[in-house]
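Q: My labmate handed me this sequence with no annotations at all. I'd like to see what the chain might look like in three dimensions before we decide whether it's worth expressing. Could you predict it?
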Amino acid sequence: MSEILPETLKDPFDRSFRYLRLSVTKRCNFNCTYCLPNGSTRVARHSELSVPEISNLVGALAELGIRKVRLTGGEPTVRADIVEIARAVRAVPGIRQIALTTNGYRLAALGKDLRDAGVTALNVSVDSLHRERFHAITGHDRLPEVLSGIDRALELGFERLKVNVVLLRDINDSEIESFIEWTQGMPISVRFIELMRTGDNGHLFESRHVSSDSLRKRLEDLGWARERGTPESGPAQEWSHSDHLGRVGVIAPYSRGFCETCNRLRITSEGALRLCLFGDSDFSLRSLLQEPSQREELKQVIQELLRRKPSRHLLHEGKFGNVRDLARIGG
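A: Here is what I predict for the chain of 331 residues:
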């Protein structure tokens, strides 16, 4: 018998929410040009949600219909207790999938522990397949370790493995075909991500933004076919090719209708609900995460806040909310 899912988490535009993106830290051990060019700022460890607070949060959201949790950062693996966090989330009744977004630096070492703790899906950032270019983008000469981590993850049997590539004009856009070729014999999905404007990357955005329109045209010319989306797909566009084992995804926040299929809630590493990635406000839930006895009040507050969710972002109007960099809110 299939599970009957509650339909309690909906916004004023009839969008349903089954997916939580939970940032567990702002810290990162890379300093990518499009995200943290000046490196990660120092963050007090006590400011990050504890494992019990995370358990209380996810427990309430699971009762409201959340079924998938993605652990993000910053870089989530800089937390020494990341495996414990994954295990705690997996123990919550109703959670069916745990995913992790990572730069892959520690994936070879942590992969087995993460898999055993219940993580089944991975998104790994690889912005270049050329070692020197990877170093220039990320600030670290770690491409061999990252690729080794991906190979190890495939050996460990993670159910889904996606590679995230932020496209940068005249930096890595010449590698599009190389990334596509990588999917020919690898069961991975390479996802090209359109660069998004933030408070700290204005000059970079103006000089390096690559429109998704040209990318879609290139995929069509190469014989790729766009897949029909599902309510669980969210805003990513999936493409397939009969000669390729893997797939290609396109995340195009500037495309028309991008927000229409929004299906995710975002919680910051300090326990604030963010109604839109490019919104102006966060709403702290932390005071309601201290005891399991607070669950009903927490659920009520979340439902009330969701009624304030906007219909779409305002990136087309040059407005990116209070987002200084994506590391703070997990992208």
